[in-house]
Design goal:
Blueprint lengths: L2 H7 L4 H4 L20 E13 L4 E11 L32 E3 L8 E3 L18 E3 L4
Antiparallel strand pairs: 1-2, 2-4, 3-5
Length: 136
């Protein structure tokens, strides 16, 4: 059996990708460099805007992307390739501790200072603030 046939027959599991000495509580940095985390938010729907309470509710998809050099990638995979993992992996891997700092609850009911002096012709600019719990 050739080496390429052996590689193709390997099923990559969590045990294959995570080394024995992996610590999910340690940030994956190289030589003390800063960790870069890319985020994406796709807003599906602005469910409601509550002027009297100065907040809004939205449905959205939130994505995060980073490199963890400690994982053992398949031999035929390049270092800058992406691996898309479902949420079941989160308990085993280091993940960013991002949170929405101006959210009122986990549904992202977000506070928004509104100026209603020009209502109903007003325009409101609201933000969703994302931060790290441990690194500010």
């Amino acid at each position: 059996m050739s080496e390429s046939q052996t590689q193709e027959s390997v099923v990559w599991t969590l045990d294959n990708l995570i080394p024995k000495d992996y610590n999910k509580h340690t940030i994956p940095v190289i030589n003390g460099s800063q960790m870069t985390i890319s985020i994406g938010i796709e807003v599906f729907d602005l469910v409601s805007v509550v002027e009297s309470g100065q907040y809004f509710v939205m449905d959205f998809n939130f994505q995060q992307k980073w490199k963890d050099h400690r994982l053992v990638l398949p031999i035929n995979m390049q270092r800058d390739s992406n691996i898309i993992l479902d949420s079941s992996w989160a308990s085993k891997l280091w993940t960013p501790d991002t949170y929405f700092s101006n959210a009122l609850e986990t549904k992202i009911l977000s506070v928004c200072k509104m100026d209603l002096s020009q209502y109903p012709q007003d325009i409101q600019y609201c933000s969703v603030d994302i931060a790290s719990r441990n690194f500010i």
